[in-house]
Design a protein that fits this description.
With 284 residues, this protein is mainly beta. It contains no helices and 20 strands. The protein has strands at residues 29-35, 41-51, 54-57, 60-65, 71-78, 83-94, 97-104, 109-117, 121-128, 133-142, 145-154, 159-172, 175-182, 187-197, 200-209, 214-224, 229-236, 240-250, 253-262, 274-282.
Amino acid sequence: MTFGFKSLCFSELGQDFKYFENSFNPTNVVKITAQDSSGLKLETLSKLKKGEEGWTANTILSSGFHVKEQAKISASYTSEKRAFVNVTSSQKWREDLVLSLLARTKPITIIPSVAFKNKSLTLAATGDAVDRNLTISTGSSFSSFGFGALIQMDLKKKTFSHSIAKLEYKISEDFVLHSAVRELGKNFDFSLWTKLSPSISISLQASLEVPTKKMEFQGVLTSAINKKTKFNAGFHSSGKFGLYISRQVYDHIELSFTGLFDVFQVTNFSAHKFGMGLNINTLY
């Protein structure tokens, strides 16, 4: 799993969309995506929680796609000397059924996920024995349209802890519109993505919190410097600025540098605002 700026983004539910993977939203929902050149894509979904030590996220595995490589190990180390390790593994039972496992540290947890996928529909279910959560997600795409939905249940309280529904319209290969409704109508998201050149793309997003009528904006610029090096930069209306630079050094090893900090408090770096990551892909 990737750590840092690249992981702070809207969740793509039930689809293999690539348009908003590099955007960030430091106040709401995050997605952590592991994807390699062969097509393996595993996603985790989380809500950020603010505590005394900054922003933290408890992740759950939501879906598995296109299983060709079967294992991914990643480790991240923050500026406050904290280390995290995740091991993700998937096994394709048949062409349309995938079983995924995420093992993580702090706390040590093993999270199973079962995903069913055919040409037009994805359905996934995930259970977290530690947090006692059950998550069900689905999504589909038809020509220029795509939709997804996710609902998370807290088995302890027997209540719905998170919900989201998404709609995406692809005007062309270089221009996409995106909208979402979260928390049973309490939040609305609107986004557009466009490709400026074969190697440069930009996404602009707005989020509205209905009860407080609070509006947030963010923009992200993505650039592929070459086949092995990627650069992303983003800005949030709250004053947050993020950078993500990655470099593939060998076939299965990627080094990444991430930074997320408050523009108005540049000297106030902490674990949730600044970090470095090391991602290692392995085959077995």
